[in-house]
C-alpha cells in the first residue's frame, strides 16, 4: 500500500474519525474542527522541515486520540478538545496549546482532566493558561516551554528536563518531580506544597539557599 502523503489540504470533518493512520505525511494540512475522536496516528509526520510549517488542529475534537512517534512540531492545537489524548515519544517543539481543553466538566466546579503526554520534546511549546491537573506528563523535555498561568497541580512530571523554564508562573502543587532536572527552580518563589522530590533534588535546592544537607 502506498504511503499516504497529503499537502495543503483541508481535512473533512469525519475523514479520519476512529481510523488508524501509520507512516503518513501531512504537509501544511488543516484539521481545524475535524472529529478525530479515537483516531490513532503512528509514525506520522505533521511537520515539514523545509517550510518549517506544522498542521492546524485548532477547534478539532481529539478525545481519546493517540499520537505515537509522531512529529507535531509547530502544530496548532488552540481551542481543541483534547480530553484523554495520548501523545508519546513525539516531537512537539513550538506547538501551540493555548485555549485547548483537557477537561471533562461534570457540573459547575466539578471536573477532571485526562491526558498522557510522555517522552516528548515540548521545547518552546505554549501551554499558557492550560489546565493539566492530575495528568501523566513524565519524561518530557521542557526547554523554554511557555507555562504562564498554567495549572499542573497533581500531575506526574517525573523524569523531566526543565531548562529556561519559569517555575514561578504556574501551579505545580502536589506534582511528582522525582528524577527531574529542575533547572533554575528557586524554593523562595515557588509554591511546593505537596510536591514530591527525591533526596538528591531536595539537597540541591537547599544548597542554593546556603543550607548544607548531611546524611
From TrEMBL:
InterPro entries: 5peptide_repeat, Pentapeptide-BTB/POZ_domain. It holds the Pfam family Pentapeptide_4. PANTHER family: BTB_POZ DOMAIN-CONTAINING PROTEIN KCTD9. This is Fluoroquinolone resistance protein. It comes from Winslowiella iniecta.
